[in-house]
Design brief:
Elements lengths: L1 H21 L2 E2 L3 E3 L3 E8 L8 E7 L4 E6 L6 E15 L2 E13 L9 E9 L8 E3 L2 E5 L3 E4 L14 E5 L14 H4 L6 E3 L2 E9 L8 E9 L5 E7 L3 E12 L2 E6 L4 E3 L4 E4 L5 E7 L8 E8 L3 E10 L14
Parallel strand pairs: 2-12, 14-23
Antiparallel strand pairs: 1-3, 3-8, 4-7, 4-10, 5-8, 6-7, 9-12, 10-11, 13-14, 14-15, 15-20, 15-21, 16-19, 16-22, 17-18, 17-21, 22-23
Bound molecules: copper (II) ion.
Pfam families: DUF1775, PCuAC
Keywords: Signal
Organism: Roseivivax halotolerans
Length: 326
């Protein structure tokens, strides 16, 4: 019994590896969630010996903002449709887009190999470890070769080309980072939220019984729409406010920006000691050097993002009496 099973498995493995060699597959094996990526379909042969005249790829739900790469000798066309989930693409809501791409009018003999490429973005709602399938069909003069089985089974003759979703490591991906704490803890702490890039966040350590502290960063608006930092919050503070330092007569005072801090299109706004800052009020415990504070920033247009502010020594970046007014 044991021997028979082993032989059967070996025979199946041999048959599959032979078949797998001939499948249409993707050059890419992985794609990062939230990233823009290229997907290249590899066509290793025709349909039962006939030359391939057209190749159609279906775009899976979750892969959006798709553009096909034109190809000499082939006409490219797209089919559009609604997305199940709308996407925020640089501040604009996308509710529909390309759902299939067809290259036609070509002639790819059975003995030749070719590649067909699209580019798109991997939706932030997708989960790492899942496969994303791109069903493909080759059309020849009399028959087709279908690569459309999305069951994930390796035992089928016509598996759909797929790639594996992985999570982004750095938080720098193009456009859709969510401000994970562990990403921000790394040396380069830039976090991207839509058109906004939030860099170099930090807060300063407090003395015992000091109820307030300043938080700082730079915010760059790479888009074409003005935005506003309207509020901040943190588990480290009872509440937070958005402040500016300004001269009142000959005295420097801080005050709350009731309407928020404007982040104009195309500009970088620096929150720094002696200038704009987010203010930790009603601290539940002193901020200690070497620790960090998670701060959630809310922007009028771009929405919310959480950044991790390393807590540095009181003397860093300016005089410690900046917040003496409280
Ligand atoms: Cu303040």
């Amino acid at each position: 019994m044991f021997i028979k099973t082993t032989l059967t498995a070996a025979a199946a493995l041999f048959a599959l590896s032979g078949a797998a060699f001939a499948h249409a597959t993707l050059e890419q094996t992985e794609a990062a969630i939230g990233a823009t990526t290229k997907v290249t379909l590899r066509v290793p042969h025709g349909c039962s010996g006939e030359a391939t005249n057209a190749v159609r790829i279906e775009i899976p739900e979750g892969f959006y903002a798709v553009k096909p790469m034109p190809k000499a000798g082939w006409e490219v066309s797209t089919e559009s449709g609604a997305y199940e989930t709308p996407y925020n693409n640089h501040g604009r809501e996308m509710t529909e887009g390309v759902r299939a791409v067809t290259w036609s009018g070509g002639d790819l003999p059975d003995d030749f190999y070719d590649e067909f490429t699209i580019r798109g973005a991997v939706g932030p709602q997708l989960a790492a470890g899942e496969a994303l399938y791109f069903p493909a069909v080759q059309t020849c003069a009399n028959v087709t070769a279908d690569w459309t089985d999305t069951s994930g089974s390796r035992d089928v003759p016509n598996p759909a080309p797929s790639l594996m979703l992985v999570s982004t490591d750095g938080g720098h991906g193009h456009g859709h980072a969510h401000g994970h704490g562990d990403a921000a803890m790394q040396a380069d702490t830039t976090v991207t939220l839509g058109d906004l890039e939030i860099a170099a966040p930090f807060a300063r350590a407090t003395l015992p019984n000091q109820p307030v502290a300043g938080g700082f960063m730079t915010v760059t608006n790479t888009g074409e729409t003005d935005d506003t930092l309207i509020s901040a919050s943190s588990a480290a503070a009872g509440r937070m406010e958005v402040h500016e330092m300004a001269m009142d007569g000959d005295v420097m005072r801080m005050r709350e920006l009731e309407d928020g801090l404007p982040i104009p299109a195309g500009e970088t706004v620096t929150l720094e000691p002696g200038g704009y800052h987010v203010m930790f009020m009603d601290l539940s415990a002193p901020l200690s050097e070497g620790d960090s504070a998670e701060v959630t920033l809310t922007f009028e247009k771009a929405g919310e993002v959480t950044v991790t502010m390393p807590i540095v020594t009181r003397d860093a970046g300016g005089a410690a009496h900046d917040h003496g007014g409280h």
